[in-house]
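Hi,

Apologies if this is the wrong queue. I'm a grad student, and the batch job for Methylmalonyl Co-A mutase-associated GTPase MeaB from Heliomicrobium undosum produced an output file that my downstream script rejects. I'm not sure whether the problem is my script or the file. Here is the sequence I used:
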Amino acid sequence: MIDQIPALLAGERRVAAKMITLVENGGPEKQELLKALYPHTGKAYIVGITGSPGAGKSSLTDRLISGLRKQGKKVGVVAVDPTSPFTGGAILGDRIRMNEHYMDKDVFIRSMGTRGSLGGLARATKEVLKVLDVFGCDYILVETVGVGQSELEIMTAADTTVVVLTPGAGDSIQAIKAGIMEIADVFAVNKADLEGADRVVTEIEVMLDLGARTRPGAAQQWRPPVVRTVAMRDSGIDQLLAAIQKHRDHLETTGKLADERKQRIKLELREVIEHHIKDLIRNKVEKTGEWDRILDEVIQRTLDPHTAAEQVLDIGLASGQPQAD
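Support response: The file is valid. Your script probably expects a header line. Output copied below for reference.
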């Protein structure tokens, strides 16, 4: 697969699809492929689209694709769907809603199953983003599965996070409770033609005002705009795209884009280290007699878990590198 990276850089869709499948499913080549891809990453702008189920995220994403294509942008989409309990694969509802874009060579849409992840993102999502980045996408839209408070994970992947709320479902209050107000760079009040939309907008604006009063230097900080949209009627999409662009301009002119990406790389490195340690324990330590001995001593309470953990790490680090998943 590594020898096909030039084809990926040239925009070969079939190569992109094969590499994403490899990254999703794992295998001996995955780690080497990601190593080779990494120097070519960092060019795409990533927009997270999150919110509760039924808020119209997929329809809104579909309209954003159209808007970006009118601007001549190459667009990648990662739609994180619930995992089927029967097949283990993604339930491809998003592909159905976005099917009009499938013949467009400058749009690449991939559905991924959460596979047990509670954060609205599959573990491999960030790795798939790297493939689409190298593929040449100007923008990558990441639509999360919609699982309430765990949606906060999107902030570790996206440059701009759009939180989608709808009237009539108590979404604005739930967002405040869940801490989603903290991660939103742009609010989209979708289905704004329904009764109660004005109330949702007012509640968000009030909460933003209250937050501005309590934060030092709030006048210089970004205030998330609240955009009314009706995705099914293509209403408010240009305004939403303008809000995303304005946030990007703010990040770039203040230098915050580079700072935030640096912090995300730092967090990703920690996550990769933790993943390798887990693999090390699972593939090396748990297959030795020492694991059984340590476990028995903890069960007998002759060894405490903290000391046991130190011993396990010592054994794992002495045994060599973890196997690639």
